[in-house]
Design brief:
Layout lengths: L5 E5 L2 E4 L6 H11 L3 E2 L1 E6 L5 E6 L2 E6 L2 E5 L11 H9 L1 E6 L5 H6 L10 H4 L4 E2 L8 E2 L4 E13 L7 E13 L4 E2 L2 E2 L1 H4 L3 E2 L5 E2 L29 E4 L2 E4 L1
Antiparallel strand pairs: 1-2, 3-15, 4-5, 4-8, 6-7, 7-12, 8-11, 9-10, 11-12, 13-14, 15-16, 17-18
Bound molecules: flavin mononucleotide.
Amino acid sequence: MRFSSARAGYRGGMDYDFTTLPWGDAYKLIVGSVVPRPIGWISTLGPTGTPNLAPYSFFNAVCANPPMLMFAPVRLEGGRKKDSLANVERTREFVANIVTEEALPPMDASSAEVAEDVDEFELAGLTAVSSVVVKAPRVGEAPIHFECVLEHIVALGDGSEGAGELVIGRIVHADVAERVLRDGKVQPDLLHPVGRMGGPTYARPELLEFERKPQPDRRGSSCADVKVPCGRSRRIFGRTEER
Ligand SMILES: Cc1cc2nc3c(=O)[nH]c(=O)nc-3n(C[C@H](O)[C@H](O)[C@H](O)COP(=O)(O)O)c2cc1C
């Protein structure tokens, strides 16, 4: 990957002046570095009631109280809005369906840039199922659905190509399939979540068990008895002792 505003030799790597870097190059560097990204499969209703579906990896959970999710559609050439954004602006609601490994082929099919009257559920061979609270349908094949009502749209950039909008939705209803639950909790080994890497690659999680260190309390008491199960060192008040 070559970038026009990159300078070689910076601590043996490259440094980039983001004030002059063309947005397409900045985009490549960001999506190759901020990885893996969760994928929200966003369903909305089009202007004539046609279901719309598209994956968004600028997607995350952003608030617990009230519970909120976000996704960020990037503007197309000429500053044209993607259908998901136009639909949320009009209907003020959407569903974030969780993408699993099994769903990669239909998820990819649903990312096609098609006219707003094309039903992307049909295009991708998926089942549009009625939601409980919102009018937008959910993906029957997805194990988790978060039904959201629009809370905020934050404009990012000047509305030209590559600019975007941060769409924040408040979750009003969620449902979770029995098949991904054990002991009442969503289990990654049953969910098979995937994340987006740079380009056409995806990642599945390799779980690492990491025992959190007890934090020193606010009065500054000791955390000297810390056990780090898989580390080669233990840390006492910032000093590292080799084992
Ligand atoms: C895995 C994946 C993640 C994507 N993430 C985004 C994203 O975060 N933002 C974006 O604007 N487009 C993203 N896209 C592209 C959109 O899915 C694509 O432009 C789609 O046609 C938009 O559909 P819509 O016009 O129905 O909203 C992604 C595509 C894929 C395959």
